[in-house]
Amino acid sequence: MSTGQGSWKIIGGPGSVLNPDDPSARIAELIPGTGTSLVWVVRSGACPVSLDTLIISNDALPTTADAGGDRSLCDTEEFLLPGNNPSVGIGSWQILDSSGYITSSGETDVFHFSAMNKPVSLVYSIANGICPVSSDTVKFISYSLPDQANAGEDIMTCENKIVLQITRGGGSLSHPDSMITDLSDLTTNDTVGLTWMVTNGICPVNIDHITVTTGQEFLDPQAGIDLSPCSIEGVQLNAQGAPDGTLGMWNVVSGPGILQSPADAKSQILGLIPGKSTVLVWTLSVYEFASIDVTTSVDVGMKYNWLVDGESYYDVRDPLIVFHEAGLHTVQLEVSKGDCINISPEKEVEIISCLLREKDSTSTEPLNSVTVFPNPTSGHFSVDIEQTIEESVILIYNVSGKLIYSDKAYGHSITKDIMLDKSGFYFVHVINPEFKKFFKIIRL
Predict the structure, then answer these.
(1) Which residues touch 16 (CB under 8 Å, ≥6 apart)?
(2) Domain that holds residue 243
């Protein structure tokens, strides 16, 4: 300034000019985020005053960005981004790779995953004017649900070392993450429980259990011969006693009768009704494994025994007989009541080779099958039976070897819907004159 005298004056906002007459004066006591307006006034005698205005825009530092920390999610396609709401500045998200996209609605930002089981990095930034940007980087990952755990069937062995092959996933043995692993150093007459877990990130763990039972010999329950008393209301059973370390138990499968001592192999059964049959089962169990013999019945009625090529079809009045080979076959009927037996003459039946069920009669496709599903179950499950002989017995035992359900399935194609009330392991047995099927089912 060559002519006149100048001075600074604050006309708006905070601040204090330390040397108002100095063109390069310093101004103090500014407030971040609040602007200050000043005027520079130059006077020279009686001449008009010369003015110029200066505005100082003092941006405040933005709020510190907080992206909420890394997140692991399960089976999630969309995720509400958790960045903090800034009190100073404007927040925004940016994807650092190409694993998804962001949609915004008002003040809400949503991240959409384009791939599961793949981490994605995002940065949350808060900016305000020319001040340095505050940023926070996070990683998100959404895991897909793990496969259903399937440890396979329970195992019984007489060896001291086995190779355990699991259907899917990893285990907890000599090679915990391998589908094939060794289980060794087993002792005889013992039961080992194994847990197989399938995991994926933070998703719920799928678990299946199996047991490995070792022994010098398998349990061999003997219920004794069938009984045919004449018009009595009680009789003594004659099963072979339970070996040491096992539990024997009688249960009435069908028909009348009250067991006096169910755990006694020689128990009395009372309350029989002349003319009606009673079927019982004798079970030997060790821990969770049960062996069953259902060969004993108390029958005071008519009994039928068909002899087909020397093979017997017991207790079936009108059997369905399937011949697997063409040619001459012999059929004979034996009818008994008590100690009285009548035998029919032997008849010959000629079978001519033809197509069976629209397939070649030489097909080895099985004609008997049983399916139990779903397994595991939340309560309800079904037993589907395809059978050539039209009568099967369905038995269900809990892990203690107690019979909790029994029923008969009549016909060639049957579906039984069953409800399990309590969680745990159960053993389903389907018994037919031609086959025996055993299943383990888990009630969640």
Answers:
(1) 10, 27, 28, 29
(2) 234-298
